[in-house]
Amino acid sequence: QTENGVLLPSLQYALPFLDLHGTPRLEFHQSVFDELREKLLERVSAIALEGKVEERYKKLEDLLEKSFSLVKMPSIQPVVMCVMKHLPKVPEKKLKLVMADKDLYKACAVEVKRQIWQDNQALFGDEVSPLLKQYILEKENVLFSSDISFLQNFFSPSPKTRRQGEVVQKLTQMIGKNVKLYDMVLQFLRTLFLRTRNVHYCTLRAELLMSLHDLEISEICTVDPCHKFTWCLDACIREKFVDNKRARELQGFLDGVKKGQEQVLGDLSMILCDPFAINTLALSTIRHLQDLVGQDTLPRESPDLLLLLRMLSLGQGAWDMIDSQVFKEPKMEAELITRFLPLLMSFVVDDHTFTVDQKLPSEEKGPIPYPSTIPEAFTKFLQENRIACEIGLYYILHITKQRNKNAFLRLLPALVETFSDLAFSDIFLHLLTGNLTLLGEEFALEEFCTSLFDGFFLTACSRKENVHRHVLRLLLHLHHKVAPAKLESLQKALEPTKQSGEAVKELYNQLTEKLELRKPSPAEVTETPSMELPLPTVPTPASR
Q1: Looking at CB atoms within 10 Å, which of 213, 389, 400, 532 has the fewest?
Q2: For the segment 394-429, what is each residue's pLDDT rounded down to a tens digit?
């Protein structure tokens, strides 16, 4: 006991003092041990920063060699893990031993795990996979959120805010400065995008790069050929508009793709396929078209507009490009520029004309009605051309946000059949339901509800569960505005089937509960408390 005790002469008299207080020797030795371990951990961290590189790592390697045999002892393990954490290259043999033991693998620092992951793609995939699933789930939860508002929607958070999300932060930490791991994550995202066609993977691709950019990790940013393009586009997304200066920059990047480097187009297209990028490009396109109407200029004469279309086309063609491995920009159809966009501009003109007509003194011939027919070409474009469909849908969102009921009801029938059912996609329906809250008062009108629900929503409810969910979300928000008779028929039409998912049933039950609360209770209807007050007589319903 004397031989292995703490050999300090002054302790000989202090220890009996502790005995008198009933403090066990074990507790004393444990506290000394903990104190020494803390000092050792501090010293290891200090060694990792002092002296010449070779010398400091030599010291740490020697220390690891001496202490590794005790790695499974809980009291010594933190020291061994700390030494490994500070070594840029842990000996292969030690890494294999850590990897083979689940508890050790779990206990080691992310710096050590990176060294294991870079040569074990499958293991890294197992770590990343739950995070990617969580990310997609978070995006879908926002799209189906019970809060419906035109002010706060899916695209409201700024890029910087989005990058603070848990998944992006965790992935950024897991990658660190390791280019190999970054490439692996990008490969996972490409594969999943190809397998599922889920565009949220494209968002994550851009967010991850910009998160590393925020931390100034030049080791990765300088080797990703999309870095400057993504950085510039990120600034546009923040402003929700592509201004002339940035448009020139983006064009410079696209024109600068050299022969033999076409593969970078696959990555650029994925960055442009991010819904936040598509949203910014489409909003900018609508704004440009309105400016062109005011300037009496045709779309083909606007280089800025043509660039927006070029980027939209590249983004929308991302899946095909990565799938076919044919890296060249998709060819733009001339008719999109010469026929479809002028058609959209003519709708803007119709609105201006109608507004002016309303203000003119009415003559004998009476007020001029709002145009109700849709040119056949418009409907055909929405069915057959992806870019036209995307721009057309954003135009409809634009007029809904302006509370332009006439234009909305005129163009609504064109949405029943669109390219790849884009009008029934979650992002469009999320934005549309938000904007429809601005037309809340119109829901009391039979004609409006019939056009919107019977003519559009209900045509797809039975075959597309997501549409069913979005209609129920909208009604939960606006049911008090809808005429009771219409509400009753909608309630019947929206009743879930046996095949309906839990989310639909849950929303339907919520709606039923809300409607039940609105109905007057039978007691209220049958019994009216007698009031001995001289009130004027009120006609009673025939049922009494």
Answers
A1: 532
A2: 999 999 999 999 999 999 999 999 999 999 999 999
- How many Å apart are CA 104 and CA 99, to the nearest integer? 7
**Domain count within the chain:** 1
Is residue 41 assigned to a domain?
yes
Report the C-alpha gap between 387 and 393 in whole angstroms: 10
Reading the block at residue 464, the tokens are 């597309």
Does residue 100 belong to any structural domain of this protein?
A: yes
Token pair for 161: 């805010």
Assigned domain for 24 exists: yes
Residues 481-508: tens digit of each pLDDT: 998 889 999 999 999 998 889 999 999 9
| Alpha helix positions (H), 417-541 | 426-436, 446-449, 458-461, 465-478, 484-493, 502-518, 522-526
pTM of the model: 0.86
Three-state SS at 289: helix
Identify the pLDDT of residue 77: 78
The two three-digit tokens of residue 458, written as one number? 């209900």
Query: So what's the pLDDT on residue 108?
Result: 86
Q: Which residues contact residue 124 at a Cβ distance below 8 angstroms, ignoring those fewer than 6 apart?
A: 117, 118, 181, 184
Contacts of 459 (CB under 8 A, 6+ apart): 416
Read off the tokens for 433: 């339901």
Residue 515: name the closest of 500, 501, 495 by CA: 495
Element (H, E) at 206: helix 200-214
Tokens of 380: 């055909």
DSSP 3-state of 165: coil
34 is in which domain, residue-wise? 9-119
Alpha-carbon gap, residue 513 to 480, rounded angstroms: 13
Report residue 300 as tokens.
């083909």
Is the backbone of residue 153 left (phi > 0), alpha (psi -120 to 50) or beta? Answer: beta
